[in-house]
Amino acid sequence: MMKRAGFNAVFAAVLAATLPEISAANGAIGELANRSEAIVVGEVLSGRQTGLSATFSLTVGRTIKGALAPGESISVSWSTGLRAERDLAGNYGLWFLTKGGDGLWHLLGALPGRVPFELAYLKLPRASAPMEAGSKPAPAAVEDLIANELAAALPSHDDGFYNLATALLGMERCSVCSSIFPSLRKSVDPEVRFVGLAGMVKRNDWSALAEIADSVELVRHLDVGPSIVSDALRPIRTDDPTAIRSLGKIALSAENGFREGAGVQRSAAIALSCIHTRDTLPFLVGLLGSADSMVRQEAMFGISRFVDNLPIQTPGTTANGKSDVPQGPAPYRTSETSKYSLSYRPFTIGPGEEPEYLQFWRSWWEGVKGELAPERK
To answer: How far apart are CA 315 and CA 310, in angstroms?
Structure first.
């Protein structure tokens, strides 16, 4: 079991309030990098936060972007903190900076909104040095340089691991990540290993998804593994049978004793529900018996959308309304399935109604599974 000392000290106190923003912000590291006039690895020599604002002296160790030289010290201000009275000396990591109209340096927060100072930058261990991705020369692209810094920090970083991992996983335009994530996958540290696996899954590597499915029981022993894995599973949209079998195994794992994996199970169930192809049906039917009411309704939603012959649901097809337009004839739709379909009605049904809905869809499957059960190759 890998427990990272210090993780809960600052981060957990604000996790519930900031988690949606964390995912969004770390997915936009490239945008943050573009807005920055300077990006450096450095340490706060002196400074203090008073109320919502802070002023501090930052000494540059390495320069990722801009003209600041190693060893140079600059004065930086920041004005979007949670109210606090504290000394800031010793904070070390990756800083995103810009100059205001006053010609002075200002910190661009790594997360939006008001956060503790430790979440305004990407905290790094002092001993880390940029990772060299394979045998490639040092990349010139700023995002690649940032990715190498984050990847190098993960194996030895105790505090802020989740923030670094989600920042790295959100760097969709990172060219060196195709080498970084397989390297992290080989780590003996399970937290780091699952970051590598999640990164490969986000790049549609279904062998990594199969490895997660085969070792999903390990996730319960990790500090941040469940969140990392959940974030990678939820957006999967593929009709690949191999990927669907892995999602099904993960989704059903909670029903086989993996109670601590509710978030992981939900994410796999959401993916299966949005895909809702013929291959997903046995897994969705299995999830009708889940102990989690959200998972049960995801299962009914997915089965309903299969019966109504609706396309795979993606953010794009949902935004333009095409996800609710049948792809053609719906041979399995009847007046009875329409009565119990969750395709077009508000997602949540009341607890008093649910048993009737669940019984209908179980009976429906018993009547059609001989025809619809996917062929196993």
So the answer is: 14
